[in-house]
Amino acid sequence: DLVTREEFDIQAQVLLRAREQLTALEARVAELEAQRDAVAK
């Protein structure tokens, strides 16, 4: 089963956006953990 170039490009964009969101969420978690650790001291 093959996909069209258009379908491939769409999925590549979806994956890129998901990766960007994951990176942003990882940064946010790190920020929140740092705040938590600063308050805990």
Q: Which descriptors apply to this entry?
A:
1 helix, single chain, rod-shaped, 41 residues, mainly alpha
Helix content: over 70%
Please report the total strand number as a whole number.
Answer: 0
Broad shape: rod-shaped
Weakly predicted, low-confidence segments:
none
Radius of gyration: 18 Å
The number of helical runs is 1
What's the SSE pattern? Answer: H
Write a structural description.
The structure is a single chain. The chain is an all-alpha fold and 41 residues long. It is 88% helix and 0% strand. The protein has one helix and no strands. It has one helix spanning 5-40.
Give the helices and strands, then pairings:
Layout: H1 5-40
In short:
The chain is mainly alpha-helical and 41 residues long. It is built from one helix and no strands.
